[in-house]
Amino acid sequence: MSSRKRSIMSENLKQEIANELGVYNIVKNEGWGTVPSRTCGNMVTKAIEIANRKFQ
After folding, report:
1. Has this prediction a pTM greater than 0.70?
2. pLDDT tens string for the chain (56 positions)?
3. How many domains in the chain?
4. Is 47 within the bounds of a domain?
5. Running DSSP on this structure, what letter comes out for residue 35?
6. Does some domain include residue 2?
7. What are the counts of helices (DSSP H) followed by strands (DSSP E) for the chain?
8. Structural domain includes residue 24
9. Which region, left, alpha or beta, applies to residue 31 given φ > 0 means left and ψ of -120 to 50 means alpha?
């Protein structure tokens, strides 16, 4: 059994938001582990905004 949990956000959505926040090149070249936690928090905020728009 895998110890990793399934991601809630699709990889495409993560990449789209990373691009919008200007960190996609970091992700592309160095991976998600190098993205600052503040930026990841901003990504979550942006994803919530997108989800709220879809359900309204």
Report:
1. yes
2. 455 667 788 889 899 999 999 999 999 999 999 999 999 999 999 999 988 998 88
3. 1
4. yes
5. S
6. no
7. 3, 0
8. yes
9. left
Range of the domain at 40: 11-55
Instruction: Using the structure block, give the residue that is written with the tokens 């090149």.
Output: 25
> How far is CA 25 from each of CA 30, 44, 54, rounded to the nearest angstrom?
8, 18, 27
Identify the CA nearest to 23 among candidates 51, 53, 46, 52. 46
Cα 54 from Cα 56, distance rounded (Å):
6
Neighbours of 21 (CB within 10 A): 14
Give the Cα separation of 7 and 11 in Å (integer). 8
Could you tell me if residue 3 is inside a domain? Answer: no
- At residue 14, the 3 state secondary structure works out as helix
